[in-house]
Each structure stands twice: as C-alpha cells, then as structure tokens.
Amino acid sequence: DDVVDSLMNMSTHDDLLIFTNFGKVYRMKGYNIPEFGRQAKGLPIINLLNMDKDEQVKTMISITPSEVDESHFLFFVTKDGLVKRTGLPEFENIGQSGKLALTLREGDELVDVKLTNGKSEILLAAANGKAIRFDENDARAMGRTAKGVRGMRLANDEFIRSLVVIEDDVREILIACEKGFGKRTFIDEFNTQHRGGGGVIAIKTSERNGALVRATKVDPEDDIILISDKGTLVRTPVEHVASSGRN
Question: What confidence score (pLDDT) does residue 4 get?
C-alpha cells in the first residue's frame, strides 16, 4: 500500500537529494519538480529519475547552495541503528542516474538523512519508544560508500523510526505514535550519552498508543501537520499538544 512518509518545504533553486531503499542518492533542482494543487495525485517520481524497478524513495533532503562546504555533513541512520556522517561536498556531482550514498547490510534499510553543521547533537528514536542522544562527532566522518557504525543498540525485533538533529535553539521534542497519541518533552530530559547505547524511555508504547512513529523538534509557537497512512492531513498548533515528562 502507498504510505505518505514525508512532507517538506524548499525553494525552487534548492537542490533536492532523494535517497532510496537501495542506499542510492539522486539529485535534482527544485524547479524541475512539477507543481500541482493540494488534492492532485502528483507524478510518479520514476518519471523524473532513472530508478530501478524495485527501488523506492525512503527520504528526501533539500540543500541550499550556501550549505555546500566542508563544515556541513549528511548524517544517515538505518533501521538497524547504524549511523554514518559524510561531508556534504561528496554529494555535489550526482545526476539523474544516481550514486551510492551508503552500503547497506543485508536486511537493513535507510530510515532518514539530516543535514548537520559539525557541532550538532543527534537523537535517535526507536519504534519501542526509546531514544538516545549523542554528539554527532561520536560518529567520525566517512566516505560516501561506507557502511557506518553503531548508533543505537537494538534487540532483534526493534528498529529505528526517527532521526532528530539537535542544535542550540532546540527546546522541545514532539513524539507521535501510530494511533494518533503524542506529547511534547523538553530536550534537557534526554541526557547526552555515548553512541551505541540502548537509550532511555522517550514515550511508553502501549496498546492505546501503538508504536512510536516519529520524533521531531518543535517550538511552542509552531504548527504541526500530521499525515495519516491514507494521506489525510491535520494541522494543529504545537501548544495544543500536552507537554509532559520523558516517562
């Protein structure tokens, strides 16, 4: 079944990096993406990129030209908790045919990619409601095709659902679960640890809540848009979501 997984905004002159389940990355300009109305079905992305038959888009990230320098990195996380940090300039010369962005182990798949500035902290959140926070420099910079290192220790039936980049202005994390329940929690409740640990409870996953599906940084002044697996959008002020402790 088709599932809506990501919503983002970008300028027409930004570069869009598109990452797939094969560990490949494609690059295209924002103005090359057709514009449609809110209720339009859109265009199959395979019409814009030279993707293989079973290849699927996993995540996207927009890059402004000013961000392409030695001080910016792309931070990757996989379902099995592996992470990798690679300098952004390594992703400059990529066309419609794509290039390998990371080497995936058998059975693993890419979950998310975020831009970092070399001074950020990382928060990984797993479906079981646990999260770990660590310095991005705990993961040394690696080449574009490297496999990565352990970011969070997981049991065999657990997997990563979210990657959050924490910078100085981040105050709160909003966590949402499968059945529509969620909460806000102050970022200070998540102590910085070393990469590779088992993490701490971020939200209690229960029969009522379902599994954790997304963690994201928010400000009380923000609005959030929730997207169901059927493509329905709900917009609500962040302040309407209760703020409560990590447990």
Answer: 47
